[in-house]
Amino acid sequence: MTKLRCFLQWLRPHMPYINIALAGTAYWANEYWFQGFCQPVEWAAWVLAVSTAAFLLWPFAKRIPVLNYLMLFLMGMHFTVCVYCALFINPMQLLSMLLFFFLVFPLLLWVPVVFAVQALNRTMVSALPGARWIFGAGAMLLILPQLWVEKQFREVEAAVASLPAAERHKPSALARVVPRSYAAERLAGAYFKYHNYPEFILDGWRPPLHDPLINVSLWAREASAYGPNPLKVIYWDAATDAPHGSLKTQALFYHLLFPNRPVKADCICNQTYDGEG
Question: What pTM, to 2 d.p., does this model score?
Fold first, then answer.
C-alpha cells in the first residue's frame, strides 16, 4: 500500500503530460495503425476537438479564474463524448483488451474511460461554487440535438410505415414519402457512407464517416446492423440467412433522395477489410 501511495503521489503532477501523450498516441494509432473510429462528421469533429482541448488544458487554465466555468462546461461535454466512445467500443471488448495488456497498444481503447473518470473526479473535488451544475449542464447539452434527431427519425419511420409492407425496401416507393431531413440523409447513407456499428463491413467497404447522433437513435432501437434503419434497401433475408441487395443499391437510393450530396467520402479505412491503414 505504501508503494502504491508513493506511485500515486509521483503520478499526480505528471498526469497532465501523460494525458497529452495518451491523446496524441491514441489519435496516431487510430489514424495510422488500427482505425477503431472513422472520421467524425463536421459538428462532431468540433465538439471532440474543443472538449478534448478543455480537458487537456484544465490543469494549466484553471489558474485563470475567468476561464474556470467555461472549462468545466466543456469538460462536461468531454465526459459525454468519452462515455459515447466507450459504448461504441463496447464495454465487453474493453474488458477483453485487458487480457492483452502486455501488448500496450490495445490498452489505448481505455483512453476514453481514463479521461472520463478524470473529468468527473476534477469536478467532484473542485472548490468552485456550482462546479457540478456547470459540468452537468455541459454533459447534458448534447441531449438537445439528440432529441431533434430522434424527432426526425420518428418522422422517417412514420413515412415508411405508411407504405405497404412489400414496398418498404423499394427505393422508388421510399423516395415518394421520405422527408428530406438530416436524419433521413444519415439513414439513407448507412452502410457505405456513415459508420453506425463497430467493425461493420459490407462488400469489403467500411463506411468512412461517424455521426454519434444517428448512431444513438439506432442503438436505442436494436443492436443489429440490419434491424432498426427504416431507410435500408439492403436487408437481411431470413430464408437465405444473407443480406439482400448491395452497397451500390443503397448508394443509388441515397443519390435519388439527395442528388446534391456527395455519395463518397474518402478515408483510409473505407477500402480495407479490418480498418488497417
Answer: 0.81
